[in-house]
């Protein structure tokens, strides 16, 4: 199969922007779990801004896609990747908004661990996405993101089981269960990104 | 790019039917939040009927799609739009069933607000979908549906946070949290409809 | 429309493997609801193994898809079907892990009923998928899977409503509500499989 020389490479730039945006969001989430609720309002406001930045990038990609005739990678992969990156940012914000609105005083140790897994996944997303144009060393980052998702899954399962065990107030159980689930869904969304990147890389070999 | 003159325009008719069906469903949901539980069983039965009507329309679209060679808009967009419209109707019914089965006595003010946002979104869906064939004035309705989804998101987030604040019974918290979330997911599904319509409109310009 | 004689029929073999894997998983889930928690750890370990087997089959399908030029059925249908079958297995395991980690002592009658519906759906999936290559008698199994999903939906709705009625401990309500929802989502995933198979069958007629 031959390949037309792609004319429009701007997509890779947009993907890299979306990935760094996610990385910054993940850093803010980690800060929230480390500092406690002293700066929750402020951190959450920052995450709302980052979410809007992400929305704009997604719209730019989709608009460009609809006006581009020859794309460097499959049209549907561009669309899915844009949506998947957007989902990651939305879920980081959704985790933060829950901690803030539910008036969490001190994030649990498990929330801290999950935020760190999200941060590491975000770092791997940046690496995978910035290697996507050259299709170089993409796979190892995708594998790592999958490993991190499994880790988040285990942490959140154990954390939720603990909530039931330790005689907590039902209200706290409801709040924390949802926060853990939202953080875990964030790593699921990271895995979706990895799966799309992996499939793009496989097609190109 | 030239366009083959489309032969099969029946799709637009089906989409309009699905949209009016949703609008009728949204009206019933608003009634439920206004009247209280006196007519819950009856209203819910009506919504089950409307859900079945929606299912039939979806199946007709997919069957026609599988037998049509030249479609007026992209095949995948027809499929996605049919599924997205179906999801909206399903989630309206899912909101109603929860109020009924959980034996809610008096829907909260916030449930009323969310039902109104769903009704307004349904009205915009009708307008967007009926303009789709002429590709006329579609965008403004999509933008409005997005705005309404943001509004529903805020109402439901605040409503859930309030549940934790006001010393409610844990059982009520669990019930209402799920009802608010289901109503909010309904507006998410409306947004999915808007995004597909927007993307169809963008491709045609 | 003519059809190129398909070269690569291995996809059907993989789909059949994924389907039998699901069937074995469903059997283990039924055992868990029948035996009570005496063997939970062991059964869950078995389901984790089956989940890994499922993951491998999914990866094999996607890898083969990316390297195959002429596919016996539409590329996207192969991809969607692989993902949908994987989702069923994941949700069977997710139901089991919740019963285990939440230290359920005696699965409820409703959990038993839902597990049986999942088992019957799995049996229909095996039949539908093994008929897919010959496109023979596929539809009746898809219709049955849809019927079973409706049944699971009703069982789980009633079961959750009962949780609120019968003066249960809030913790138990939270646990069982999630288990019922996860089991119901398993039948939703079975329905996704049926919908894809149905659409493949419709295209081929």
Automatic annotation (TrEMBL), chains A, B, C:
Belongs to the UPF0111 family. This is Phosphate transport regulator.
């Amino acid at each position: 199969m031959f390949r037309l020389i792609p004319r429009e490479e701007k997509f890779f730039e947009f993907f890299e922007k979306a990935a760094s945006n996610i990385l910054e969001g993940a850093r803010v989430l980690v800060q929230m779990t480390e500092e406690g609720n002293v700066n929750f309002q402020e951190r959450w406001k920052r995450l709302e801004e980052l979410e809007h930045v992400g929305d704009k990038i997604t719209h730019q990609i989709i608009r460009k896609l609809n006006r581009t005739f020859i794309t460097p990678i499959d049209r549907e992969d561009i669309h899915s990747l844009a949506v998947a990156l957007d989902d990651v940012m939305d879920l980081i914000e959704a985790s933060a908004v829950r901690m803030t609105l539910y008036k969490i005083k001190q994030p649990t140790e498990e929330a801290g661990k999950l935020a760190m897994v999200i941060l590491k996944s975000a770092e791997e997303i940046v690496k995978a996405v910035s290697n996507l144009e050259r299709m170089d060393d993409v796979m190892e980052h995708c594998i790592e993101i999958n490993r991190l998702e499994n880790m988040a899954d285990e942490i959140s399962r154990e954390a939720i089981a603990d909530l039931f065990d330790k005689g907590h107030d039902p209200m706290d159980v409801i709040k924390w269960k949802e926060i853990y689930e939202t953080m875990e869904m964030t790593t699921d969304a990271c895995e979706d990104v990895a799966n799309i990147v992996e499939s793009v890389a496989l097609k190109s070999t």
